[in-house]
Every structure is written in C-alpha cells, then in structure tokens.
Amino acid sequence: MVMGILSICLILILAGILIFFIYRNANKFLDISHVHIMVMSLSTVISLTMGVTLAFLIHYHFFVALLFGLVLGYIIGRPINLFAIVDGMSSGLMGGMMGVMAPMMTHVNPILLVIFMDLIYIILMAIILKLIFLTRGREEDKRELQMTTRKT
C-alpha cells in the first residue's frame, strides 16, 4: 500500500514538472513537426505507469486509469495544437488500459512490477526533459544567430 502511494506521488510530481516545462516552452514546440510524438510518449508512459500502480492499489479498476489517461492527454496536448490533444488523449487512454492489464498478464510480484515501471518512467521522463531543454537551447541559438545577422 505504501509503495503504491509513493509511486503515485512520484508519477504526479514528475508529470507536473514536465507539464510545467511543456506549458512554459509551448511556443518553441510549434516549429517542430513531430512534437506530437513527445505528447504521445508522455501520455502513454505516464498513464501506463499510473495504470500499473492503480491496478496494484485498487485491484484492476479500469475506469480511474482510463479517465486519468484521457485527462492527462488533454492537458499535455493542449498547449501544442488540436492534433496533439487527440494524439495525447488516445495514447493516454491506451496507456491507462494497458497499465491496468499488465499485472493481469504477467505473473510477477506486483511490487516488483511497480518498481520496474517507476524506473522506466524515471528514465523516459529524464530523456523527454532533456529533449525539452535541447529544443529550448536550439531556439535560443536561432535567436542569437538572427541578432548577429541583423547587426551586420
């Protein structure tokens, strides 16, 4: 029980941080043609991890995980565009459903499965956070290049 609550806290804190950075840098993502892949992977991984944890805590309750995935996909995709919203919501729905079904299909200790999903979640969130910062740095480099070309 404590492991599940700690896992949910970890998921929500990291998701909140990433959503904050997405909203803060949303105008920089508009230039990127494949930003919906970031939205898709975020909503899938977050809802998948939350689904596994909720399956462990409230015994395979689909509705909460599906609703969480839908809302999360909308929140993540909203600052980008309508295509990202649809992609995020469908990926969140799929991830939540797969997350609840994963403990049913694997015959592994549920605590080990939650720990494994949390580790995957942390690694992928670090990669996506790095992508956000690389995108931000590229935008600042473009601005500096434009400033120097205007001076000459």
TrEMBL record:
UniProt keyword Transmembrane present: yes
Descriptive protein name: Uncharacterized protein
Transmembrane segments: 5-23, 35-52, 58-76, 111-133
Keywords: Membrane, Transmembrane, Transmembrane helix
